[in-house]
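Section 4.2 – Deliverable D4.2 (structural model, holo form)

The reporting period included a commitment to supply a predicted holo structure for the target in complex with zinc ion. Inputs used:
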Amino acid sequence: MVREILTFPHPLLYKKSREVKEVDSRLAKLVEEMLETMYKAPGIGLAAPQIGENIRLIVFDLSDSQLPERKPHYLINPVITEWEGTSVGEEGCLSVPGIREKVKRFARVEVKGLDLDGREKVWEAQGLMATMFQHEIDHLDGILFIDRLGPLKRRRVKGRLLRREEEE
Ligand code: ZN
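Output (structure tokens):
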């Protein structure tokens, strides 16, 4: 089932998500729904709070969307355990439609989390994947990429988004 993606300034996007304590069939179903929703959008990553579920769960797929075989991934309770360097890249977000801005991130990260069998998974990421992890984990802490912009730019972007919301 494709779920509705919440957009700025929905309050659930600004709530800190809680850790997943129990990995059960409901969680497996949620992973499926999140992947379906992400592919439909389409996007390369999605965090559970973006569909109104304030738990620490992300899905992602950075494979070429033109290929017939996609590579869906998910991670439960993801945590950045190591980081190195900085890199600036343009980001967008399914919850902030129509906005793309440059954001400063760590260039390389190590991320640990769990799979649906409760086993630990470790990802070593750089480039787009490192950015994606930091962007999605930010969602779990109630932070949008536009909150990472400098104060002037942030105010301008938020003003534009709020005006657009009023016009709709
Ligand atoms: Zn996002």
